[in-house]
Amino acid sequence: MKNLWLVIKREYITRVRRRAFILATLLTPLGLALFFVIVTFIFSYENDEVQRIAVIDEGNLFEGSLADQQGLYFNLEDAPLEELKQQLGEGEDAYSGILVVPEINNPRQANFSATFYSDAKLTIDLQEVLERRIERGLRAYKMESFELDEQLLAALDTDVRIGSRTLTAGEEEEEEDTSFAGEVGAIIGTAMGFIMYITVFVYGMMVMRSVMEEKTNRIVEVVVSSVRPFTLMLGKIIGVGAVGLTQVLAWAILIPALLFLAMLLFGFDAEGAQAMAEQQGTAMDQAEAQAFVDQAMAGLATVNWWLVVPSFFIYFLGGYFMYAALFAAVGSAMGDDLGEGQALTIPITIPVILAFYIMIAALRAPNSSMAVWSSLFPLFSPIVMPARLPFDPPFWQVGLSLLLLIAAAIGLVWVSGRIYRVGILNYGKKGSFKQMWKWFFMRD
Amino acid sequence: MTPINTETASILRVEKVRKEYGPKIAVDDVSFSMPPDAILGLLGPNGAGKTSLIRMITTITRPDSGQIYFEGQPLNSYHPTQIGYLPEERGLYKKMYVGEQLLYLARLKGLDKATATKRAKEWLEKFLLADQWSKKVEELSKGMQQQVQFIATVIHEPRLLILDEPFSGLDPVNTGRMREEIRRLRAEGTGIIFSTHRMEQVEEICQYIVLINQGRNILEGRVAQIRQDFREHRYQLVYRGELPTDLGDRYHITTAKPGELEIGLDPAQDSNALLHYLIKHNVEIQIFQEILPTLNDIFIRQVTQIS
Hints:
Strand content of chain B: 25-35%
Low-confidence stretches of chain B: none
Number of helices of chain A: 16
Order of helices and strands of chain A: HHEEHEEHHEEHHHHHHHHHHH
Largest sheet of chain B: 6 strands, mixed
Mean pLDDT of chain B: 88
Largest interface: A-B, 23 and 31 residues
Largest sheet of chain A: 4 strands, mixed
Order of helices and strands of chain B: EEEHEEEHHHEHEHEEHEHEEHEH
Oligomer: heterodimer
Structural class of chain B: alpha/beta
Radius of gyration of chain B: 24 Å
Strand content of chain A: 5-15%
């Protein structure tokens, strides 16, 4: 027990103080924040270009007024087109373009075309803005000619949302879900599944490399004369796992903090966001945005955190132990040549990748039979089940899945330990599954 | 723990130990006992089963049958802390600091932190490596790494020390220093098993050998005794003056150089009679000695004879 602790401590400390680890832990959030700042900058950059556009409104569609917007000024002109063309250019009073909106003949016409004269080619952004302006003008004009009431028209469209009520067994009262619960669940599920996927790969591989390193450096010969190979393997898995947890925790704190800081410093202001949204044609007014946030919060509140968080933690540990042990066994079978042994890792990586795709499918249909069976199967469950958790899967499924996972994790750690103990002291033979099979049955 | 009677029990006794790996018998009924006052040389060609045997002694693996006794007790999980093993295939954590590495390995052997620190510093000073404490192992020369490795093997003051090719990669100065330490440890009562292919080292260091070939113990005993047992009755004669003319008729001369002869005697012939004969003929004898076979000769003869 004391030796296990010593091994864990060594594995943890020597990794955590490595420059590469510190850099990765600090620079990743910094890089993300920087990326965020740059993206914000790029989006806000377009705003400082000022364009003046002359509009010849032949049908008086805009009724004498056309509102300016950021970086875009409209002038309704009566002068003839040929005269205005002379004013096209770069200067202070010059126009960057002339929009000719012809008279409308028939209010029922479904197509309408206007012409834009300019020295430069019409940009997509500007085209969208102009088209939308004309559409709005046409709409107002048509409503007037058809004598339509704006309110009546608005009443035609109905916003339909389905509120789902989950009937939880044993619970009398039904909680009303907001329409957002599904989306929020999917986001949380994806995040958890993704974290599992990354963790298994990155830290599982780290365990494997560390086993190989000890074997090729022949340190293991010295160490196993003091520590049982199983203790050494377990200590390594726990130590590297603790390194992983440290990194994930550091990111969980640093990333939001730095993003928040970036927002404060580089003015990701509401106005900019509004402008951005407007440009993308998804303008959302203040009230709507507030409603969105409220619904999202309500969605978060409906998630059964008391189930999700502890189960995720167990899935995290179970999945990590299971795969890390397999990676350790494979690492012990590898020779000095990483490339040669790479084939041995394929049977481990395939279930991880499969589980990832099943997880994505499970998000769409959390109660499909594929989702249910995969979330019970231990090699898949650590990735698939966390994604289903926010959708309140039946309790027996979670329980059974956890039970199977824990049993499988213990079993696989034991099996890997048996392969590992022989593998680490075997230099000559090239590792193969046949060898590993033999090693498993070999007596101490 | 039952009290250990170190007075009577050998530090290590191997009794009919057998180990198979699949169809291959790595160790086949090997028995020997460490004499109390000698450094034991464990010899054998590559693949003879030495490493398999050592791994069982260090409790890394277990015998399929037979038993190993440590100071009279069957090996148990406490004994690894009493054994120091310097494997032939050895290494250190390259990225760890020298001091930290020694502490880690010492604490795995059961030392507390304070004792481990104190001893690590003492040993590094002894090997003139005190200023390397906070250097990374990879920054050290190969010879220095070897010495750090040796310190890690002995830092917990083991009762039994197993050294497999301890001098490989060391220059003569460091070899001498380490040999000195090995002698000192022996004098303090540490049981030492020394394994090597370098027979001249065995003759210098070991007083007792066990020769393993194809998993079997084929030769065992005190070095002096073994050399006597394998004597070929060859004598070296260095002389001045004229040799008797009929010497070649009476004795078998294997090599002849000016002033020096090598003579082979029949088992029936007596070396004293030869000496008398030479003196009678007024040969001035400077050196007259029996040429005993070297361990190297014996090793090669034994191993090739069997395989």
